[in-house]
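Consider the following assembly input.
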Amino acid sequence: MNLILVTFIILLAFTSYYFGRKKALVIQSSQRLTALPKFYGYYLAAWCAAPALIIFALWSVFEPSIVKTFILQDYTDQNLTKNELQLIYTKVKALAAGTYTGNITNFLDESANKYIQLKGIANSAKVAIILAILIFSLSFAYRSVQKNDRMREPVEIFLKWVLFVASLGAVLVTIGIVFSLLFEAIRFFQAVKIFDFIFGTHWYPAKTFVRDGQPDPELMKDAFGAVPLFAGTFFIAFIAMCVAIPIGLLSGIYLSEYAGRGVRKYAKPIIEILAGIPTVVYGFFAALTVGPFVKEIGNAMGLEVSAESALAAGAVMGVMIIPFISSLSDDVITAVPQNLRDGSYAMGATKSETVKKVIFPAALPGIVGSILLAVSRAVGETMIVVMASGLAANLTMNPLESTSTITAQIVVILIGDQQFGDPKTQSAFALGISLFIVTLFLNVIALSVVKKYREKYE
Amino acid sequence: MNSFKKNLLKKRYNAERRFQWYGKIAIGLALTFLAVFMFQIFSKGYSAFQKTWIVTEVHYDKELLLIDAESPSKDDLENADYYDVAYKAMTSLDPGLPEEEDRQLIQMVSYKYETEVKDLLLKNPDYLGKIVPIKLTASDDVDQVHKGNYPRDIPEKNRRVNDYQLQIYDMLNERGDILSEFNISFFTSPDSREAELAGIASSFMGTVFSILVCLAFSFPIAVLAAIYLEEFAPKNKFTDFIEVNINNLAAVPSIVFGLLGLGVLLAVFNLPRSTPLVGGITLSLMTLPTIIIAARASLKAVPPSIREAALAMGASNMQTTMHHTVPLSMPGTLSGTIIGLAQALGETAPLILIGMVAFVNTIPGTPVDPAASLPVQIYIWSESAERGFVEKVSACIMVLLAFLILMNLAAQIVRHKFEKKWS
């Protein structure tokens, strides 16, 4: 039904385009045109499609919830909770679609009939309204075409609005992220105190699982302490940076200051391949090759190493991040003005002294910015940790033990079927918003540092 | 020059040389890691492209098949009972074996062997009543033994293949009845719980659908947004805000987009779970900022002289943009789009959150059928304990990497072939 309607609107828009263009040619015979003939067509087509499609979209968004309120009106006197009401509504919908298999009560049957009826009314109303709008807007547009009004400006203004709305897309995504995270997180913090979440040292959400009914508040208090996860996240990120910063920075410096054109041409893209490999592949590699390798070395040295160690995950993550640091610092170093180098050479400094004492300090803000971006990358990395560093949230500073991170716990909680309204599910969103805040914070600082740095030398 | 100065100079030159070596070593380490990584994947994965078959003889005995008709129709063959015939085909490998030990032989082929026996007869109805050779898919344990991935010297009770089965395997191998052929079914069959039957067709289609959905959503919006921001937007607080927003969005961890997909697309809009449609939309939100940034950069690279010339000829702002600037910026935009899609292709975590990890053993035909995607398939298989899946994972990674290389090559070609050089 919807598809037919949309196709109809679009077809009508195309027809009105051709009609409008033809009309322009007719007008041309008697008076001077105000724009190219195709603008007459665009004008008609835009008036045809835009209002109808906007109303259609709004209708489709609001119709289900309106129908739902109508259906659930009959149940308001029964004092049901929100979840029960939702269940009833799902049942009614299934019954109306003929896929319901449970036992059918009279009341349910009545509601299903009402649902079908309402849907029918809504559908015919939708078609009627849209047809009316089509007729109205087309006749309005046709009148101005006949009057030979200016045609190009309105079309261009319309296009500009389309462009503007598209640019709002990115803002909408951000708003969507913030609201979807906040909405569930707030409900989580109604059940668990925010203090317990931020300062608690035990993360064990599986403990709160209770079949039918609310979990014990005492249990909740002790199950959602996120400190081990924050610690684990930054610990693994730290290990990753220990690998990535020296290698990335040194290779960035070498590539920008020492390497000949041939080396640079090949080495740079090859190192950047490391950034293009999907993280799940790194995860597999860490779990299958690096993890056992670390364990073997540790055992040979007489150390107790768990098969899923923070070290393995962090080291592989560090390798993944090398190209971020190397190419960003390469860019930053190349941006340092040549006269600084020349001045240093003129004083008799060697190349490495110039790099260490002149270029590096000059490029430091930019390098710090790129390192912060890399840290935010490491904090948000998921698959490597999920696959290589275990899922139990230990509060430990031993790189040979397994730890877990915020991202890994989100995956663990939400894999498989989720039940909305369960504190365990909601805790994932609370973790998500803390992750979002941390990375946003790092990014904002990094971007502003890099921006300031760029301005300094421009 | 006194010796002190000479020594100092020597020290400084040594420091210089050392510093150069640090740089070389750093690059060497990065390259070594890449090489080790590639070697590991290829050496583990190439064997997955070979499939092991066990050849035996099957007697399509009418009585055992429970076929009464003189000249049975296709339906009769379809409904016949193949259990005994297939069973006999396997047990005939070692007629001396006591009946209660038969399972050991059956376990050497995949659990679908009955279907394979049936399919052969359906393909060649004239085999009815005859004894013919047949190829049966070997179980993943035998498969791994044949490929040499399975240690034979560990104690029997720690092995999934017992001594008796190894003995039968050796006998068959000597007779030349173990075949190794190119594994077509890896590309044509959907996922399975059994390593020897599992293929990437279902996840491959899931990936293709999600990428198409992602392209359909992100490309138009991103290009329009980039045009607005670069060509029309007034310089004010609001457009600054949009700009900052886009830059930050590009650095938001991918898993947050998964939460967005879960909390909004599934919970509010009630889109179907586990489908490439939802996966594609989630990924498109993620690639949106990447494409916007690339498109803006390539719009910026179009020299102002082009715009001025068009304006001087009497074109309106919109005409200048749509007829001249945008077409000239397309190569850069397209190559940025392809790179954004390549990133989306390797994304796993957001897809896991919206349920694309479900076990799917059918090949999805539309974007609203449940499906996995290639990276998620890698994750699912690598969580599986069976040895046979290790090579499958590596092979799947090889397919995924091949895909990524192709896309990046395409981006390069688009950029270098079609981009105008402004000097």
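Chain B has a mean pLDDT of 87. Ask yourself how this observation constrains the way the partners meet.
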